[in-house]
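Appendix B. One record, verbatim.
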Amino acid sequence: QVQLVESGGGLVQAGGSLRLSCAASGGTVSSLTMAWFRQAPGKEREFVAALSRSGSVTYYADSVKGRFTISRDNAKNTVYLQMNILKPEDTAVYYCGTSRNPLYSPNSYRAQETYSYWGQGTQVTVSS
């Protein structure tokens, strides 16, 4: 069973940056599909970014494209979400998810049900 632990959340002013980390155990990130989702108060959990098992393919939600970057460090078995030019609407709990299965369509990467294992989440608050 894969275990994920997120960290790096906090309070930041609009326009600022944060880097979230997702440390994995029970599996190696270089053989897993990894993704970030977020959930704002009163809203459903939504897709943010995903990274293929090969590490060569990334997907982003339109709302974060050009501002957020997903990456991984195989040596640290950790996936990151670099968030720049943060906006108040980015305020949410951010969750890291992973799947052991190979994926074959962009829609699969964006679907919450694709991911079997989740972290506990880390709060990101962006003040205006």
